[in-house]
Amino acid sequence: MDLDFSFETDHQKASPRSVESCETISRTKRRRDLFLASIGYHEFFSPEMWKAALTELVATACLIFTLTTSIISCLDSHESEPKLLVPFAVFIIAFLFLLVTVPLTGGHMSPVFTFIAALKGIITLTRAAAYVLAQCIGSIISFVIIKSVMSHNAAERYSFGGCTIARQRHANWTYQPGNCTYTGVYMHICVAFDKRRCKELGLAMVCAVVAGAMALAVFVSITVTGQAGYAGVGLNPARCLGPALLHGGPLWEAHWVFWVGPFIACTVYYGFTKSLPNET
């Protein structure tokens, strides 16, 4: 009887530690599960997400190839004002690509729109990471193809349609892609990411508004700079990645500008939307 009593007492002394240890493990597991749920980790195993990411890769590669070659063709034309042709080419191409890809993936085709969609909670961080990776790979593929078909003189003159800027003005140039991105993001969020407005306007009108914002941003950027090698911001940092890797030199040195500026603009815009009144 004494032995049983002694065993019971030892068990009672050990029990609180065991319970506390179990509670600690349980809390840690709950925090981990909440974190994984918040970033959408479950989508990592979703075939649908990878199909969407593959669609983004193909769409981004085709869009960048078509836009870059079209813009260079416009700038290399014998028109007196070739830059006036650029926004029309950008609008038509962007409109058609958006019309096809918006129903499939949301029509991002740019890390900028993917980033702001993740900030707004429209897509998960896991899906956003997959989209951005796909868009960057698509950019590299498109410029590998462009490099193989473009003449050497045109490639040197226009830097593969890359994002080239004056070396001594890197910090100042951050404002330009940032300002243009802010305008594009404003249009994209207010129209494309608003389900109620999408239903009211219809898919074609939404794509037209977003494509118009992209065309305006490209036109303003190439007009302000006046540089032959600068094909406009295009609201797409991934577009600058391919030429920076393939061509190197000044394109790589200034590459960070076309990521920092737009992502600062997205963050500022996201903060701005938090101060807006709710729609009635």
Automatic annotation (TrEMBL):
Organism: Dipteronia sinensis
Protein name according to UniProt: Uncharacterized protein
Listed transmembrane segments: 52-72, 84-105, 125-146, 201-222, 254-272
Gene Ontology molecular-function annotations: channel activity
InterPro entries linked: Aquaporin-like (IPR023271), MIP (IPR000425)
Keywords: Membrane, Transmembrane, Transmembrane helix, Transport
Protein family: Belongs to the MIP/aquaporin (TC 1.A.8) family.
Record-linked PANTHER family: AQUAPORIN-LIKE, X INTRINSIC PROTEIN
Record has Metal-binding as a keyword: no
Bilayer disposition of the protein: Multi-pass membrane protein
Entry's Gene Ontology cellular component terms: membrane
Pfam families: MIP (PF00230)
Localization (cell): Membrane
Keyword check for Phosphoprotein: no
